[in-house]
Amino acid sequence: MKRDISTSAISSFAVLIATFASGCAKESDGLPREAVEIEATIDSKPIEKAFVQLLPAQQAEAVTHVGGILENGRLSIAKDTGPVPGEYLVSLTSG
Question: pTM of the full predicted structure?
Answer without folding.
Answer: 0.64
